[in-house]
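EI: anyone free to look at a 255-residue chain?
SC: sure, send it
EI:
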Amino acid sequence: MLSDAAPGKVKIIHGDVLNFKMERAFPSHLRKTWDDGPPDVHIIGNLPFSVSTPLIIKWLEHVANRDGPFAYGRTQMTLTFQKEVAERLTASTGSRQRSRLSVMSQYLCTVHNCFTIPGCAFIPKPKVDVGVIHFTPLIKPQINQPFKLVEKVVQSIFQFKRKHCYRGVGVLFPEAQRLRSSERLMMLADVEPTMRPKELSITHFKNLCDVYREMCDEDPNLFSYNFREELRQQRLSRTVKGSSSSRSEEEEDWT
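SC: here you go
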């Protein structure tokens, strides 16, 4: 119906937006250098709530790497999100809605909450209102580190959103060196350990990422460390020891 309504002006592609190669979707003459203004390419989407968060994280990684739809330059995006997610994306330092999404989007883009669409405007009507968010990639990101490193630091800290930030910083390091390395990271980054994650500014996160990068350069195995995997191994070890102890007791009973 859309194609019929605009013959020759609309190209309809059926597919999964999470896997679609958008860098092939537009003519090459639309490309601009990163320092120029945004190109004549604009991503506009009424996103399903189920894919909106993984999709914006995927596109933010493309912004950081300047590939995908951002191979054309600082491509702008205007996207819909569940109102609560929209508030997180635009939340300022110290606000109740401050989250991982706030930091990951704002260190790479200017993020603006355009307006809210009431749920009753949609058919079928969702249970929540919808926020319309506009993204313009920054010429220079506020944190000059690889996206995956920034994501790991930010995600670790917000993992314990209601705790002091040193709790989240700690899970970046193996248990054997956790206390010493956490203290070193926070001291060199000039971050007060008793601050809450929502109180940390982009500058705080920049300092944390820069120092963590230096520590990863010193220890090539550090970045691949996974806190949850270490916990899993510890639980597995305790289970194995417990089973061995039970077998020993059974053998004593038999003898």
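EI: The radius of gyration is 23 Å.
SC: 👍
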